[in-house]
Amino acid sequence: MSHSESLFEEAQKYIPGGVNSPVRAFRGVGGTPIFFKHAEGAYLYDEDDRRYIDYIGSWGPMILGHSDQRIKDALHAQVDLGVGYGAPTAIETEMAKKVCELVPSIDLVRMVNSGTEATMSAIRLARGYTGRDKIVKFEGCYHGHVDSLLVKAGSGALTLGVPNSPGIPASLAEHTLTLDYNDLDSVRETFSRMGDEIAAIIVEPVAGNMNCIPPAPGFLEGLREVCDEHGTVLIFDEVMTGFRVSLGGAQGLYGITPDLTALGKIIGGGLPVGAFGGKREIMEHISPLGPVYQAGTLSGNPLAMAAGLTTLNAISEPGFHDRLTEKTSKLLNGLKEAAKASGIALTVQQAGAAMFGLFFTDEPSVSSFGQVMNCDVERFKKFFQGMLSEGVYLAPSAFEAGFTSAALSDADIDHTIEAARKVMATL
Ligand code: PMP
User: Fold this and answer.
1) Which pTM was predicted?
2) Residues 386 and 287 in one domain
3) Closest to 376 measured CA to CA, from 332, 352, 346
4) Is the confidence metric ipTM above 0.90 for this complex?
5) Are residue 253 and residue 379 in the same domain, yes or no?
6) Do 53 and 134 sit in the same domain of this protein?
7) Which residues are catalytic?
8) Tens-place pLDDT, residues 241-274
């Protein structure tokens, strides 16, 4: 029995399913989850001292790679000053200023502790601001485990077959209208019937929780128009895409200005952080300026701010995202070639600098939830397990986007492509 297997057995005695977040349990791919001991640069090291090239990056935050010296130094310095005060600090303002500079649609920003808190608060704010109850989301998009948003959700909810979670009152879920991603006609049709009752549209501007689906040309523009016509708040959930697809996120990449933005992952540099922000006029409705209540004991925690701000400063270096774009393209071209060599139908999709999707399908491009559901999940599982035994750690689900990091070397990417060649030949 491997160390990971025995640790998993022990974990299951005390933790539901042995994990603190469901996708980690490997239910989407079978087998035993790997337990990790340490991580450095592009690599994760497991409890059996095996090394893996990492394409998950702690589900997004680690765009610099693991154990970056700059982050470690910032954290050590802050630890010496105290780990939290529950009172204002200079570093929070520095962080807020940096976010407002990088994401021009954000005039004011509030720090929270997770992506879930960020979307939950943005939805409450949109409802409080408009005085309306209904919201629109898209099938297969995941916005954290917020009650109103766990309706036809993606990510682990999709992987585990529970897109509509029990425990959410029907009287709440009925206010969530779920439409098809990239289908602007259905959005227009819905708004023509009830647009003036809809507080917000929340959307992943690149869908990353049903694999990786970029917005169809005109989709985000159309959402902006519809929201303007109906006084509806447009919320971009950039928890995943923020600072990843480009320095200014998906809104910077595609040139669309949302009213509110939810952030997470990279903004915390690996520590638990989220944020939501946007137009001054809307954000001024948040407590203590306005009546929409929102708070957090640990919000703006100085350790989390130190890791996050250091990350944002590092990725602001000129050329950072261009270099990542090249790395990601090199990886995807290589994987495509590897599949071709074995006659395997594989479609690859890249969103901006550091986000990608692999689809086992004959379709030349994948732009809808329906197409994602038609991909060959069984083949993905075999591919995943094969890559794992070759020392490559991909997301353990056919419905998650992949992430590249600045720590990946050309040799790491070559190793990954070589591994894929071997594995594809066995599929
Ligand atoms: N929104 C998106 C787009 C996400 O991908 C996630 C998490 N993967 C969340 C929200 C929720 O973030 P958290 O897990 O930090 O609560």
Assistant:
1) 0.98
2) no
3) 346
4) yes
5) no
6) no
7) 142, 237, 265
8) 999 999 999 999 999 999 999 999 999 999 999 9
